[in-house]
Design a protein that fits this description.
CATH topology: Alkaline Phosphatase, subunit A
Largest sheet: 10 strands, mixed
InterPro entries: Alkaline_phosphatase_core_sf (IPR017850), Sulfatase_N (IPR000917), TAT_signal (IPR006311)
Pfam family, one: Sulfatase
Number of domains: 1
Distance between the termini: 31 Å
Protein name: Sulfatase N-terminal domain-containing protein
Shape: globular
Organism: Kitasatospora saccharophila
Radius of gyration: 21 Å
Keywords: Signal
Length: about 450
């Protein structure tokens, strides 16, 4: 369904709220003195096919919002993806290319800075950026409970400037602090921005005791799991050892940890309802990257295959027309679109360049740039740095002899080390790399020269 169909489906809600959806709804709300609250819920390593574990989340944010069926991240790695959410920029623009250099992010170019400057109360609860020093306070947040590292029980937190251990299961600890932040809305009339980021379902994906033995639905894998012939894949994929049993175990552990996230989301929903703030709160829910369940033998992220880059992606804002079970939106959307969406809803024009586009308007892209950098010199078993042209029907990927140096900057020859092309209509599980042993004439027929030129222009812009 295109944007026109989505708008028609939401017309009754838009009329009731007098906000012209897609035509400056956020600006209209701000002008009327009703700037929305902003809630971003970001899970860690949550792939797309996990809705079994989050029924209450889906009931709220899809039943009273919209599911973006083609949700992606532009870099399938934690810190770069989170920096793209905060800034609306591709990683090659915001500078956080790997998990080791969070301080490369220009904190001026973030939604938390813009919102706080515009009078919003801002709070961060959970995981921030990988390799961020726990004693360093996160800029432009008025309140925070910053967790580090990925520990599910009795973790260490920067608690509004004091680093200490807080007993309890991390998802519950984060939930309770987020609820306390929301409760202040009863006496503080400022609109607020809350970034709620539980560790789940990141490894070691330790479930809450009450869910430790929960039976999950049987999963028999995808055709890409236990792929019989990987000779057309890069060396690190040919040598990967994941099996269906591996994928099943990772999936089960992820689902069990997400059950507690679902409980936390329901608690947040109930608190917003009690505060009378459900209608005019813009809620965005997504994962910071996907995860493969032994697809092509790979049981991680960081690769251009769809399970690694696709994520659940929900948005609800009833007062802005995104509510009442809005029709699914099938546009290609990404984490870089969150910042422009938030800013438009708040009536703020960004004073920095963004790469994404507001989801409140009609913009629809026909493809997306996805990129990833290898941190440090190339290691056997690790992907080379890569960039990818991804559309609904095809994907073209180039791997380069590049890596990030001690400052997080790309170094190397830039030589193309490997290439892949997949016809996603005929081969959605990416089993047949059509560039493997392809002739120049076959590449031309696939349109590879044009794709390569587009990819090069976008990744170097």
């Amino acid at each position: 369904m295109g944007r026109r169909g989505f708008l028609a489906g939401a017309a009754s809600v838009a009329a009731a709220t007098a906000l012209p959806l897609g035509l400056g709804a956020g600006s209209a709300a701000a002008a009327a003195g009703a700037r929305p609250n902003i809630l971003v819920i970001l899970t860690d390593d949550q792939p797309k096919q996990t809705e079994w574990a989050t029924p209450k989340t889906v009931d709220w944010l899809v039943g009273h919002g919209v599911r973006f069926t083609s949700g992606h991240v532009t870099t399938p790695l934690c810190a770069p993806s989170r920096s793209s959410i905060f800034s609306g920029k591709y990683a090659h623009h915001h500078g956080v290319r790997d998990n080791g250099h969070p301080y490369n992010l220009d904190q001026h170019d973030t939604i938390q800075r813009a919102l706080r400057q515009a009078g919003y109360r801002t709070g961060l609860f959970g995981k921030y950026l990988n390799a961020w020093q726990p004693a360093d306070n996160p800029p432009h947040f008025e309140e925070w409970l910053l967790s580090d590292p990925v520990v599910y029980n009795d973790g260490q937190y920067n608690d509004n400037g004091t680093v200490h251990t807080i007993p309890g299961y991390s998802t519950s600890v984060i939930r309770d602090r987020a609820l306390a932040f929301l409760d202040k809305a009863a006496t503080d009339t400022r609109p607020w921005f809350a970034f709620v980021a539980p560790k789940a379902p990141h490894a070691p994906n330790t479930p809450e005791p009450k869910y430790a033995d929960t039976t999950v639905p049987v999963w028999n894998g995808r055709p890409s799991v236990d792929e019989a012939d990987r000779s057309d894949k890069p060396a690190w994929i040919q040598n990967s050892t994941g099996t269906l049993a591996t994928g099943r175990q990772v999936r089960a552990n992820q689902l069990r940890t997400l059950l507690s996230v679902d409980d936390a989301v329901q608690a947040i929903h109930d608190r917003l309802a009690a505060l009378g703030q459900l209608q005019n709160t813009l809620v965005v829910y997504l994962g910071d990257n996907g995860y493969t369940w032994a697809d092509h033998g790979w049981s991680k992220k960081s690769v251009p295959y769809l399970p690694s880059v696709e994520v659940p992606f929900y948005v609800s804002w009833p007062a802005g027309g995104l509510g009442a079970g809005s029709p699914a939106d099938h546009r290609i959307v990404a984490n870089i679109d969150i910042a422009p969406t938030v800013l438009e809803a708040a009536g703020i024009t960004p004073d920095w360049a963004v790469d994404g586009h507001s989801l409140l308007g009609p913009y629809s892209r026909d493809h997306l740039l996805v990129e990833w950098w290898e941190q440090g010199p190339h290691q056997a078993g690790s992907p080379h740095t890569w960039s990818s042209y991804l559309s609904r029907t095809e994907q073209y990927t180039e791997y380069y002899k590049l890596h990030t140096d001690a400052d997080g900057l790309p170094v190397g020859t830039g030589e193309v080390a490997f290439r892949e092309y997949y016809d996603l209509d005929a081969d959605p599980y990416q089993l047949v790399n059509k560039l493997y042993q392809a002739t120049p004439a076959q590449e031309q027929a696939l349109g590879v020269p044009a794709l390569a030129a587009t990819l090069n222009a976008e990744r170097t812009a």
